[in-house]
Amino acid sequence: MNECEVCGSKNLTSFEAMERMYGLNDIFTYKECENCKGLFLSEIPENLSKYYPEEYYSFEPYKASSSLVEFIKKVRFEFWKRGINFKPPNYFTWLSNLKVEQTSKIADIGCGNGQLLAELSYCGFKNLDGYDPFLTNTGVTKGFTLIKKDFFEITEKYDLVMFHHSFEHIPNPEKIFNNLSTILNPGGEVLIRVPVTDGKVWQENREFWFQLDAPRHLFIPNTESIICLADKYSFEVIKIEFDSLESQFWGTELYRRGKPFVGTDIAKEFSKKEMDIFKTKASQFNKLKIGDQACFYLRKN
Ligand SMILES: [Zn+2]
């Protein structure tokens, strides 16, 4: 890889990163684009599946709500649409920034057990498809469909395509955008929730950054990388929201201590007070746009 897959810049610098989540300590080379500040795994290992042990993809079945709770969720959504809020869940915020309606065709890429699709179906959304190449249970469930497919195999058309922390696991961001322009209906929307290199934690800790997650994260954008891709494929950037969590601090500190994420008792490493401080700091970082993950809302022109 000699040029940035996003902006085409040849000004790339290399650095090494270790597998830290499982403590395997294998070393990988990443390239950082000095122009758009995106990070690329230099060479995708042939045995990438080694880094996705079975438990990574052991999807628990989604938690179905009882018909009473389902009814309450539906009512809560109908009230929210009219401006009346009862503890709105995160996905209400996402929906509020999009034009989608209950009849819109929606795809969730890397949907796991389909929990989010189930929640949307309780709110009255009717055309919901979840894609994940690692699914074991597929087919039509009450209210949504789970499909075992790679993102690049999708040919159906959608009004909204969502990536909730799956974008960074798919190779070649430019190819992703190219495919998005094919599978979106005119005026279709994209929601991408992804780690970003705008984060102060990345800038200060580099290879110890919790969300670098070598070698599973194949590409980590900067907000500049997404803006560049949107521009290239005629997407309008409607909104960028930082939604980083306290894990950026404790996870990174854990890796600095040389401890893996899997197998370490986090509650023994950090006190309740420390965790509260991390939480407050995360929301401050989001306001300052220096959190380590963001939510991008895009619309196809
Ligand atoms: Zn670049």
UniProtKB/TrEMBL annotation:
Entry keyword Aminoacyl-tRNA synthetase: no
Coiled coil start-end: none
GO molecular function: methyltransferase activity
UniProt keyword terms in alphabetical order: Methyltransferase, Transferase
Matching Gene3D superfamilies: Vaccinia Virus protein VP39 (3.40.50.150)
GO biological process: methylation
Matching InterPro entries: SAM-dependent_MTases_sf (IPR029063)
This protein's name: Class I SAM-dependent methyltransferase
Species in which this protein is naturally found: Algoriphagus halophytocola
Lineage of origin: Bacteria, Pseudomonadati, Bacteroidota, Cytophagia, Cytophagales
